[in-house]
Amino acid sequence: MTARPRVVIVGGVAAGMAAASQARRTRPDADVVVIERGTHVSYAACGMPYNLADPARSMEDLVVLDAERARHERGIDVRTRVEALALDPARKILKVRDLATGIERALPYDSLVLATGAAPVRPPLRGIDRAGVFALRELSDGEALKRWLAAEKPRCAVVVGGGYVGLETAEALRARGLAVALLEKFPEVLPGFEPEVAARVHAELERAGVTVATGVEVAAIVPGDEPPAGARLVVQTDRGLFPADTIVIAVGVRPNVSLARGAGIALGPSGAIAVDGACRTSAPDVFAAGDCAEAPHRVLGHNAWVPLGTTANKQGRVAGANAAGGYATFGGIVGTAAFKVFGLEVARTGLGHVEIERDGLDAVAAVSTQSSRGHAYPGGGPITTVLFAERGSGRLLGGQMAGPEGVAKRIDVLATALQAGMDVTEVEALDLSYAPPFAPVYDPVLIAAAAARRALAAAAGARETHATTIKAHPRARHEEALG
Could you give the count of Cα atoms lying within 13 Å of 457 in the half-sphere of its Cβ? Predict the structure, then answer.
């Protein structure tokens, strides 16, 4: 790099600010510039549903490092309300527009990091742009929804989408006293999770007073009767009408790759930006990190797109170091995530049946149930675990859990086992802690591993129809209720 090189980062949230800070540490004399289209940088987007639940909290509480502090304390040239329009990797120029003035200019760079994140999917619904309809991706989305709740005092809401964000938002709106209906187009909530886990989530939603409708196709959003007699809006579906004063669209996200695509940068099979272990893209001196980029998956053995905040922060640090002339590599992911819905904790790591089938792996699934505490200690409850193991090798491929407590930390045990490449016999032999307030003598992780070992043995002993194999029958299960 030349004297006082310029590192430009497009995107100022998790991956972007991690890249900027690491670039500054790696090359203190570098000119580090962050381009951010919005008004906020470095905020905890995952905390928005929890913030919504508390009317006394400001969304600003979720900001970790504001633009002013980044400029003065870290020497990072953060430019908010500036949009990246086009990238020319051959000339090393980024074209940008100041959204306040409309002025466009060329911004030269020595190296560049794409941290453009993911954008919420906007289904082609008639009426999706009506007042009272929200997405929940950027901090400004959360601010707008929270202002609406305070000013309009809605009585009922519809959440479209039964993934993480939809479930957490449904809980937040129930906490604010709204009647909530949750609509999911797939046969069950939490698409991609195993049916044993999804069924527990479905039951928990209904226990908390959420109306759940699955297998629903949403057709349009139309005006409703005027309050107070009726609701402001009505969601039209193939299963009837759902009135709502507030609607949240949470049907998923897709990688925001328009800038990369326009520059001719290679995308991976998932549609996200293809990167190597150093977060390099196909363009010279251009790196990518976070929700816009793929990541090496340690279980699959190839890149995958799993948009999570933990990955974004880690990839951002690697991209920032390398963009500033250092050398760092990203160790990869196993796809670990956890969340809660009312009184239920839910978590997953590694592969589920969808990924196993897509990659053509030969695996068994084992379902087990075990108490979260020792049997003589009050409280707790059953933890449902689904483990996947590879036939032949016995290698652990993934796991999912749902229960009232202790799920998030137990999934970390399985994530560690995946990172280490352990088989289920080795997982079953782990020396895990025991005390009645925290776990039974045989922890749910150990019980699940034992069930997976037995499922492997049963599959190996079958003649022609391997009823417990994912490859032969994707929905079959080896089930045990122990402890």
Answer: 8
- Judged by DSSP in three states, 44 sits in coil
CA distance 393 to 329: 29
Positions of the chain with pLDDT lower than 50, given as ranges: 1, 463-477, 480-483
Closest CA to 321 of 292, 291, 279: 279
Model pTM? 0.92
Contacts of 142 (CB under 8 A, 6+ apart): 48, 51, 52, 59, 62, 136
What is the C-alpha to C-alpha distance for residues 429 and 62, in angstroms, rounded to an integer? 41
Q: Residue 414 burial (CB < 10 Å; 0-12/13-18/19+)?
A: buried
Taking the C-alpha atoms of residue 283 and residue 281, their distance in angstroms, rounded to an integer, is 5
The number of CA neighbours under 13 Å toward the Cβ of 178 is 29
User: Which long-range contacts does 80-84 make (Cβ < 8 Å, 24+ apart)?
Assistant: 80/12, 80/36, 80/38, 80/39, 80/40, 80/41, 81/36, 81/37, 81/38, 81/39, 82/35, 82/36, 82/37, 83/35, 83/37, 84/10, 84/35, 84/37, 84/116, 84/259
**Is the peptide bond prior to 228 cis by the omega test (within 30 degrees of 0)?**
yes
CA 38, distance to chain mean position in Å, is 21
Closest to 277 in 3D by CA, of 327, 351, 350, 335: 327
Distances (CA, A) of 259 to 16, 95, 116, 252, 267: 15, 10, 8, 20, 11
Place of tokens 């160790």: 331
- Show which residues are catalytic: 46
| Per-residue model confidence as pLDDT tens digits over 47-64 | 999 999 999 999 999 999
